[in-house]
Write the structure tokens for this entry.
Amino acid sequence: MTTEPSTFGRTIQLYLVNGTPNGLIIASIHGWTGSVLVAKQSTFGQLLARQEIKRTGVYVLYGPDPEDPLSMRAYIGEADSVGDRIDRSAGKRAFWETAVVITASDEALTKGHVRYLEARLIELAQEAARVSLDNGQAPLSERRHLPEADRANMEAFLANLKVILPVVGLDLLKPRVRVPTPNPNQESQVYPGEFEIRHKKSGVKATAVEQDGEFYVMPGSQALRDAGYVDSHSNYAELKRELIAKGILKPSPNSNFYEFVTPYPFSSPSAAAAVVLDRSSNGRIEWKVAGSKMTYHEWQEQKARVSAS
């Protein structure tokens, strides 16, 4: 019986250079020669002083997108000596908050390897569509000529990066979960792991699914419009204004509601419930398993008991 690679456990090693979680971090996976150095703007000088970044490698600058408050922006580059290039790139870009340098501890990465890795990282980030790329051009990986064995080694290298980058706070390679698309000819559909809010008093109806650690509110879901319950200066009110400005929430034919036109991933059930109900809400109680009275909290407890048995 064979085991799929995705089911294997991994040991990720995080070395806190300064002994604090907010300082410079060096991350790797046990048995992997890759090395990932992570710095914030406050520790960027320490990153530039490291010997590792004099090696051949790739780098990522990552931070909020100044043109879209709901998105992140990234720049991906490569260099024979990463330190010189990343310093210049960072000086040209004001958006970044995190700088990541990716090298190999055995200095086995060549110029051909990192040019291939750069192209593939850009391709994967475009496919995932979680960030806007600040790169002016996207090199094609098929034009990065490498022997077949080297290409296989670099794909294995990338597989480890897909695991380690989200751990250090970069989701640019993580594909968005493909949530089911409602059937317009079917008034009601229930998906696996589906939750709903159905309020008789306000009439608001919303549906959500939880997949891969993200809580997606589904298209067609309603959100109360100008109910006046939530503080206009709260984080949830600001998030709602941004969703409206981006066209994710649009006025419904019913003047009491907005309507989600695309799936939107929220950071938590409570954030989703606050936008739907126009007030601060405990989403663990407000969201119910579709077609039942079981709360999200009760569902989680049941799921934990089943996993433990």
Summary: Helices lie at 44-48, 82-92, 111-128, 148-167, 235-245, 269-277, 283-286, 296-308.
